[in-house]
Amino acid sequence: MTDFDPVELKRIRWHSRRGLLELDLVLERFLAQRFDSLSPAEMSAYKALLELPDNDFLDVVNGKTDLDDPSIMQIVEILRAI
Amino acid sequence: MGVPVRRFDAVIVGGGGAGLRAALQLSESGLKTAVLSKVFPTRSHTVAAQGGISASLGNVQEDRWEWHMYDTVKGSDWLGDQDAIEFMCRKAPEAVIELEHFGMPFDRLENGKIYQRPFGGHTQNNGQTPVQRACAAADRTGHAMLHTLYQRNVRANTQFFVEWMALDLIRDADGDVVGVTALEMETGEVFILHAKAVLFATGGAGRIYAASTNAFINTGDGLGMCVRAGIPLEDMEFWQFHPTGVAGAGVLITEGVRGEGGILLNSNGERFMERYAPNLKDLAPRDFVARSMEQEVLEGRGCGPNKDYVLLKLDHLGPDIIKQRLPGIREIAIKFAGVDPIKEPIPVIPTCHYMMGGIPTNYRGEVVIPQGDNPESRVNGFFAAGECACASVHGANRLGTNSLLDLVVFGKSAGDSMVEYIKNEMPTWKDLPADAADRSLARIARLDGQTNGEEVADVRTAMQRTVQARAAVFRNADNLSKGVTEIQQVAERVKRTQIKDKSKVFNTARVEALELENLIEVAVATLIAADARKESRGAHAHADFPNRDDEVWMKHSLYYGDERRLSYKPVHTKPLSVDYIPPKERTF
């Protein structure tokens, strides 16, 4: 666990609430199991993922599409497996 | 109290399709308009709508709005208000073309017109043959609509308050609505938003059920605020269900699985649908399959440690068929049910999808409540649209693709009514009552000061289990009356919820506790209204009263939270311009 701004962490948790149930379920597990042990690079990759529109985000999580950035894909692989 | 006040001409709570459509009318007419949303507007639950938006454009086959109206009235099982239904169906083509002009990327025919696809319940010539009436943007119609409307609002200078949660409605001594209190999540501060007119577009409350397709944000905030402010809720006994959601998750397993030969089993391994529907078996109509599933669970033949689901078996189809004809199903089952359907059956349960009831409105989007002899007296300054509102166009059962239509038609109509109201009747702000923020501040103070209380998640689970067990698709007198007692016990527990984190900034635990206070109002309303309705109509199927009883029950329920009592008001039987569509038996 690195020193993140605690307010920022809470904000990211709230941004993990989405318009699609499928994403809520996957991200809920991710927050419970993995979120607290992310490295700074992983945290910024996760934040970048949260910027995606919900449908695009779900396609990525479901493995229908991939993203170019390998660091973001590392988080995607965690989400796909969780 | 030094609660800061901000002033707007109009305040809109909710940034989904209905809120954004209404905001556009207001901002474009030059009024200072604020939209509050718990999440970024384009992440509202409207994004989940895939199917389309219906309109009798007649681009593929001959169609008329009168046929659309007939289908909607019939779909509503004659509980829909026929003036509102006529209004919606007549306005539908114009609403869709307007979205197209706003830049919404609809699928097109070769001739350039909007493509239309078939959808269940939509027919030509009053029920004779299916018609292609649904306009779609691939499988992302809701997403496309939200983005289109959001962009238009940015252009029109609508002011967005993102990550703000409305807490309570402010009514003055006359009962008029003069604003809302709201929590800015980033700071944890409570504000008063003082307005000439307020619109609720807060969406559904499907999270009252343990099994729900709704996103976590669908907590019925507008409905909870109404109940606390003395505004009744209409037709809360009517909830639409899908038979096969993954148990414990809510993600839907398409009907196609049973179409390809998937079968439902109880804990004895029995294919129980053979008993309920000897001919159609697992392919009987949706509501029938759902009720049979729940009956198995209620009679103790459910599966799993809590005996609360049945199994959808498809391994006998073989891996090739599963992979080829049912793409995505295996992944959904593995991800959300933790089982590989090639080897094991999927736990499924009837799953809540849509709330037909809500805040009572007319087709102008004005909130109307009984006062004196008038069953529908306007609440000055208060409007509602979308799933949170009950106009009522869906009545006892909603047709697919009518929900997106509802959002844009009644969002716009409510927006127009607000512009008219503000310009003609409310040139300046009414005074805020001295106690405007007291209720909200007291709720927060209670939460912060609570000791020896209950965990929010535990109480929420208890509520969801109660509503699921007592007021899902299988309803009978005994079960419902037990549910009424149980849910009121849960409501007492909600008053004692406790949060560990008392910090102000981005305190999501506090938000979830406040959301639960809204959900429970909806849950209690649902049980009490369902217990009282002694007939079967649309989504309310009562085993002890299996028939529709138009003589006694063709009326809307109104639930008042202060005394937890019901009253009723007549269904509107006069359309705006055409003849009344009299009730018939609903056969297909």
From TrEMBL, chain A:
It is found in: Cytoplasm. Gene3D superfamilies: Flavinator of succinate dehydrogenase (1.10.150.250). One of its GO terms (cellular component) is cytoplasm. Keywords: Chaperone, Cytoplasm. Belongs to the SdhE FAD assembly factor family. This is FAD assembly factor SdhE. It comes from Pseudogulbenkiania ferrooxidans 2002.
UniProtKB/TrEMBL annotation, chain B:
The modification Tele-8alpha-FAD histidine is found at residue 45. GO terms for molecular function: electron transfer activity; flavin adenine dinucleotide binding; succinate dehydrogenase (quinone) activity. GO terms for biological process: anaerobic respiration; electron transport chain; tricarboxylic acid cycle. InterPro entries: FAD-dep_OxRdtase_2_FAD-bd, FAD/NAD-bd_sf, FRD_SDH_FAD_BS, Fum_R/Succ_DH_flav-like_C_sf, Fum_Rdtase/Succ_DH_flav-like_C, SdhA/FrdA/AprA, Succ_DH/fumarate_Rdtase_cat_sf, Succ_DH_flav_su_fwd. Its cofactor is FAD. It is an enzyme of class 1 (oxidoreductase). Its EC number is 1.3.5.1. Pathway: Carbohydrate metabolism; tricarboxylic acid cycle; fumarate from succinate (bacterial route): step 1/1. It catalyses: a quinone + succinate = fumarate + a quinol. Keywords: Cell inner membrane, Cell membrane, Electron transport, FAD, Flavoprotein, Membrane, Oxidoreductase, Transport, Tricarboxylic acid cycle. Substrate binds at residues 242, 254, 353, 398. It holds the Pfam family FAD_binding_2. The active site is at 286 (proton acceptor). It is found in: Cell inner membrane. FAD binds at residues 14-19, 37-52, 221, 387, 403-404. Residues 460-587 form the Fumarate reductase/succinate dehydrogenase flavoprotein-like C-terminal domain. GO terms for cellular component: plasma membrane. Flavinylated by SdhE, about 5% flavinylation occurs in the absence of SdhE. Residues 9-404 form the FAD-dependent oxidoreductase 2 FAD-binding domain. Its main location: membrane. It is a peripheral membrane protein. PROSITE patterns: FRD_SDH_FAD_BINDING (PS00504). PANTHER family: SUCCINATE DEHYDROGENASE 2 FLAVOPROTEIN SUBUNIT, SUCCINATE DEHYDROGENASE [UBIQUINONE] FLAVOPROTEIN SUBUNIT, MITOCHONDRIAL. Belongs to the FAD-dependent oxidoreductase 2 family. FRD/SDH subfamily. This is Succinate dehydrogenase flavoprotein subunit. The lineage of its organism: Bacteria, Pseudomonadati, Pseudomonadota, Betaproteobacteria, Neisseriales.
